[in-house]
Amino acid sequence: MAGIRIESLAKRYNAVSAVDGVTLDVRDGEFLVLLGPSGCGKTTTLRMIAGFVAPSEGCVRIGARDVTHEPPYRRNIGLVFQNYALFPHLTVEENVAFGLRRRRVGEAAIRTRVATALSRVKLDGFGGRYPRAMSGGQQQRVAIARAIVIEPDVLLLDEPLSNLDAQLRHDVRGELRRLQTELGITTIMVTHDQDEAMSVADRLAVMEKGQVRQVGTPSEIYRRPADRFVASFVGRANFYAGRAERGIFVTASGLRLPVADLAEGADTLMIRPEAVGLRPAGADGLAATVETATYLGAGWELELRLAGGERLSVVAPDAGEHWRQGQILTAHVAPTAGVGMRTGS
Amino acid sequence: MAGIRIESLAKRYNAVSAVDGVTLDVRDGEFLVLLGPSGCGKTTTLRMIAGFVAPSEGCVRIGARDVTHEPPYRRNIGLVFQNYALFPHLTVEENVAFGLRRRRVGEAAIRTRVATALSRVKLDGFGGRYPRAMSGGQQQRVAIARAIVIEPDVLLLDEPLSNLDAQLRHDVRGELRRLQTELGITTIMVTHDQDEAMSVADRLAVMEKGQVRQVGTPSEIYRRPADRFVASFVGRANFYAGRAERGIFVTASGLRLPVADLAEGADTLMIRPEAVGLRPAGADGLAATVETATYLGAGWELELRLAGGERLSVVAPDAGEHWRQGQILTAHVAPTAGVGMRTGS
Amino acid sequence: MSGETILGRRPVEILARAALRAATALVLAYIAMPLALVVWLSFMAGEIMVVPPEGYSLRWYGVAWNQDQLRSGFVTSLWVAAVATTLGLLVTVPASFALARGRFPGREAVLQLLMSPLIVPGIVIGASIYVFLVQVEIETGLPLAGSAWGIVVAHLLLTVPWCVRLVTANLVGVNRSVEEAALSLGASPLVTALTVTLPMIWPGLVAAAVFGFVVSFGNIEVSLFLVAPGQTTLPIAILQYLQWKIDPTIAAVSVAQIVLIGAALVATSRITNLGKVV
Amino acid sequence: MSGETILGRRPVEILARAALRAATALVLAYIAMPLALVVWLSFMAGEIMVVPPEGYSLRWYGVAWNQDQLRSGFVTSLWVAAVATTLGLLVTVPASFALARGRFPGREAVLQLLMSPLIVPGIVIGASIYVFLVQVEIETGLPLAGSAWGIVVAHLLLTVPWCVRLVTANLVGVNRSVEEAALSLGASPLVTALTVTLPMIWPGLVAAAVFGFVVSFGNIEVSLFLVAPGQTTLPIAILQYLQWKIDPTIAAVSVAQIVLIGAALVATSRITNLGKVV
């Protein structure tokens, strides 16, 4: 077990930067998620840590070891791929034993450790099967067993849940988190799915255009996003341009919203759709008209137009009302609901 | 424009039924969604309506016309595919004009109608491009324009949003619904995504194993699902076995829950996770212990264990609390939150 | 292993990679050798090919050009290959549609049948067709056995299986929903094939035509019994010349042929990745 | 168009489909014809092949068996093809790894180079190698020009490009992340190639071997100048026989060859879909 330290890591292809100076410190035993849209450089970063991409600049340290120039097969990492990447010509048992054989572990020890790893991922009794005879979820569990059985210093997961369907994704992410906690293994996972990232991570690193925009715990990132990009990537958000005036945010159209903990100099206000309360017309708050109302079972998605012309997206739990286009109501934004940010642009 | 009537439609491959007696009435101008997991027969049903699969039994009527034995090119349908299926060797304009040329419409009329169709999907000025030079969302809008420009009797959509990323999917589904309402065209859409289905449909038909399990409006389906399958496919649900006793549902472990509108004979109680209220320990309700707590930004996902040993999944909005494993609290289930059903098994 | 993966830097690892590169270079040199050898030979000045050569000249290109047999062989080969390819494609395209789109028993067996030009010895195919044509000639009086049409009939057996395989493979690769879109818009199956499917696979059609042409142009075995004086294909004219005299003339002819076919292949590879299509 | 799509039932539509089916049947019959013709000829009783035949007999199989030249040609061809294929695969596999996995300038050009056996006339390749071997023989005194090893050297030029293309195509098709998984588990590139990659592509290796064998076994052009009395390949023995006499003996030999190669192809297609791999 060991922490990972990445310093000013960069990868350029000709003139284009895929990764542009990433510095990260992953603590021993921590579960860090690299979150970002496709093309943000998160996978290239992971592949540089694994040794499949040579960095143009910077270095990678695993524990005390500088592995920047080590080939992948001397890094002692466990790797899990989106497409499982099992060896199709080997049984489950032989797949899991592969890394142990390369390490010249004795036959008896191999048998014990393979059995333990398979039972950790709840696949006892599946050892004799071939990967093709298993479901996607089972295959991914074999891949996880194969990666952890070698007791790697770090576990790297590249979109491990993307090929699974919704229900399975929900279950396997729970198992993955449980397993990681049990083993206490330093883990980096790459994903573009915000729910997935939030639900398993100790800390998130949100990436865009080859750079890390913000690092923090899920609640830090969601509640106090550093910028517009982070705010809208980890959830939905309404943004208003304006200025801060002693605890009150004044929008461009003159709307005055009290905001707790508002830094002077903020020029954008972010409001999460689920932080807005809906009240009958005439109540205390912002008068609003329903532009579209979409029923989604568990709740409603409303697009409101405020008196000043601004639009406000609201997600409200289903409380039995039936919202209709054209309806007039009051939107209540509590002082704790708004987050001021400086866009710098 | 015309309604669609499907009667006892079935498709068998050797001994296996892909579709097993589906009867549906789609009203003129209605937006009906066929919702179900993969392999439930929804796509085969759509393809029988389009004429790409010959039914083993039953018939398909569009308006007054029995089209069961008509080839697809004489059915006057508009079809939109998951993978767009644009003609790669033709420009956008020529793609949209294709169906009009087959109908021997004059050149001047073609130009006008193509321009109108492209402007309906907000692609004015894109006529000269080739599909490969456009984004996925734009390509799908071309496909929609190509389907509606021929003024088809019905519009069939086969997972039209599956290839788009999350944000785009959200936008395009809104546009799709708006367009359908404007044109008043009878529409059947196939999807496996419950959110997508709920947000666009006038009515849903939930399918499983080649059969329709329930037909109804989104709120009918979500609030009063006909069976366990429907309940868990259109959202998440807790189920408890037990029996109804004059307005009170008694679970197997002896828990007594008052349920409004409980039919005698119900043997299963369904509770939606977001219908459960969370209160401090000792308050009125069911005593519960937190087994896992997952923060998801907009809210929390909790797994609770009740006093009787039952598990209860709860989805709660984020109200600033930090829920932890082992915490004791009270779960409040309102009488309107539970739905009794007869599993029949 | 990968061009990107970080490689080991231990001496033995560096040595192993150098050895692999050397072996690869050797294999490639070996493959390139005949091409280089023929070009080299064609420029040797002396009548007897020796190493080192007596000198270099272009004279053998002139000699080749003045050989009537080679010139007329070139024209015959060109004509035969062009006709066999065109006819081959014409009958092939509909058959490929039936094979790629139809569902009928024995479909797999038919695709295996397309390997048959590989397993029946070409020389025997030629001889059989010769016997057959003589029979037809005796019965009908048509002068088939000695005409270039006899060669075309035989060469169709070379071009048709290649064309069917290539076109079928391309048709199988076409996204079916694009065709279904055309059908839903009111195009009949025939109109769909002509306005949608064929334009989509035309790189495959070009590849099939070029490949059929090249195979027909270079064939010697099938033609051997079907040529007649004045109706000889180029490869057989070359064979006959070589049996009489080995000098750089033939190397010069080969270079001309290589340039012709090479140009066709390069032109095609601008349209389609032949290496992938074939 | 599709096997499933509901078809039009108007008379003209039904007629069009019938015409398409008829054309397809005709094309297939034409492709199957040489196979059928050769088998038919081999069973004709008379010395002169006429239609209708004088009768049927197995006598030509006996005659063929007793022709020493054909028997020894068969053995030589078998030996040459086996050695050329084995050597070909041995040098091909490492080269294919370099081509499929390496990133170096001119990689595309190299893949084009693999088409060269198509564009250099086989007869000229054979003659060039003959000239070259004679030179080597004069210089070194090794009797290469008249030996079967000379034929092997020439046939390697047939098998190597096919093998490189097939093996490279198969390597390109291997999911890279499976190899990366092996590397991450501690396997060096060499160990990964031997324990993961080669087992994954072995159907492709079998196909390359069979294809190389078949191409070498049937080749006539390249061998023509390299054979010597007592070291003649089967196709050339057949050619020599046919120049002397046309009777069903050769048809009988061909049927034997067809059965042999056909069996190899069928056996291979149990392992791999040859039609797809090639």
Q: What is the fold's blueprint, element by element?
A:
The complex is a heterotetramer, with two copies of chain A (345 residues) and two copies of chain C (278 residues).
Chain A: E1 4-13, E2 16-26, E3 31-35, H1 42-50, E4 57-62, E5 65-66, E6 77-80, H2 92-102, H3 107-120, H4 136-148, E7 154-158, H5 166-183, E8 186-191, H6 194-200, E9 203-208, E10 211-216, H7 218-223, H8 228-233, E11 238-245, E12 248-251, E13 256-258, E14 268-271, E15 276-280, E16 286-295, E17 299-306, E18 311-317, E19 328-333, E20 338-341
Parallel strand pairs in A: 3-8, 3-9, 6-7, 7-8
Antiparallel strand pairs in A: 1-2, 1-4, 4-5, 9-10, 11-12, 11-14, 12-13, 14-20, 15-19, 16-17, 16-19, 17-18
Helix pairs in contact in A: 2-3, 2-4, 3-4
Chain C: H1 11-42, H2 59-65, H3 68-101, H4 107-113, H5 116-119, H6 122-140, H7 148-173, H8 176-184, H9 189-200, H10 202-218, H11 234-244, H12 249-271, H13 274-277
| Structural class designation of chain A | alpha+beta
Using only CA atoms, what is the Rg of chain C?
A: 24 Å
Q: Choose one word for the global shape of chain A.
A: elongated
Q: N-to-C terminal Cα separation of chain A, in Å?
A: 43 Å
What class would the helix/strand composition of chain C place it in? mainly alpha
Give the CATH architecture of the largest domain in chain C: Orthogonal Bundle
Helical run tally of chain C: 13
Series of secondary-structure elements of chain A, N-terminal to C-terminal: EEEHEEEHHHEHEHEEHHEEEEEEEEEE
The mean pLDDT of chain C is: 85
CATH fold descriptor of the largest domain in chain C: MetI-like fold
Largest sheet of chain C: none
Summarize model confidence as the mean pLDDT of chain A.
Answer: 93
Q: Main interface pair?
A: C-D, 100 and 100 residues
Model regions low in confidence, pLDDT < 50 over at least 5 residues of chain A: none
Rg estimate of chain A, integer Å: 24 Å
Ends apart, CA distance between termini of chain C? 27 Å
Name the CATH architecture of the largest domain in chain A: 3-Layer(aba) Sandwich
Q: Give the tally of β-strands of chain C.
A: 0
Percentage of β-strand residues of chain C? under 5%
- Estimate the helix proportion of chain A, in percent: 10-25%
